[in-house]
Structure formats: structure tokens, C-alpha cells
Amino acid sequence: MQQIWIERRKWPDTPHYGQSGWVLGEDDHGLWLELRVGTPVYRGEDVVFHLTSGGLMLVPWTGDYLAWFLEYGELELYVDVVSGTVRTATSVITIDLDLDVIRRRDGTVDLLDVDEFEAHQVELDYPDDLVDHAERASQQILAAVRNDQEPFSGAATQAWMTRRQL
Fold first, then answer.
1. What total number of domains does the chain contain?
2. Is the pTM of this model over 0.85?
């Protein structure tokens, strides 16, 4: 199974978080990656933590997000709003735009980090079109998760979960 590097950067191009994922395959939704328990997550060259839950990541063909489908823990879905995703044979690199949509195991859906997004608009000098994009994308994702639409409903993930090698 091919290992690739997943890197989320902060605007305009500052290291944020990076980790490995393992390619499971592709479908109409995008590229599916296996996430393994214990995988180190880096900020720059420093390990900041190790994954405590395995699962899947979806890098979509369209849409500016990375979706994490977690096997264990309080959260079952974590969606990063991103921009400018670049895929190569060995990496996925994107700009993290702060806003995140989560679904807890009890079904509660929330939009997170609005305060961080507002602060970064000033601190990191987000252009107006990037702000508009992030706000629009986060609302679309939030609605899709609340309405249990694919790929966020979880139905698409079931076949991919069985392909993991752990």
C-alpha cells in the first residue's frame, strides 16, 4: 500500500500539520487514504502528537475540504475547510482555512474555530476572496453534514473501512 504525505499549511504558505496516510483507492468522491493509530503528526519537524484513532481521510475531486472519518473517540467526522489543494503521486498539500465542521457520535454537528478564522483574517491578512470562499464552503459542508449527504453520511466509507490494513 502506497504511503503519501498529507500536509496542511497556513496562509499563505506556513507549515501547520503534516502526517502520513496510505492510499486505499479512488471513487467518485475522491482519493481515500487510510489513517493508522500511532502515526506521528508533525508541526514542522517536531512531532506534536500521535493519532489515537484510525480511520479514513477523503481528499475530494471537487470541494475544498479534507474529511476525516474516525473509527474511535467522541468525533466520527472532522472536516477541515481548505483551499488550493495540490495532489501528486506522493503528497497532498493544502492550505487550512481554520474553519472545521464536526459530527460527534451522538449526531451533534457543529462549526468550529470561527474565532480563529476571524483572528487570522487580520493576523494572516486573508484576502477578501479567500474569506468569502471559506465562509461559503463551510456553510455548504455544514448543511451537507446536517442533511446526511454523501460523502459525509458515512455510507461511502463502509467499503473503504474494510480495505484498511491497520
1. 1
2. yes
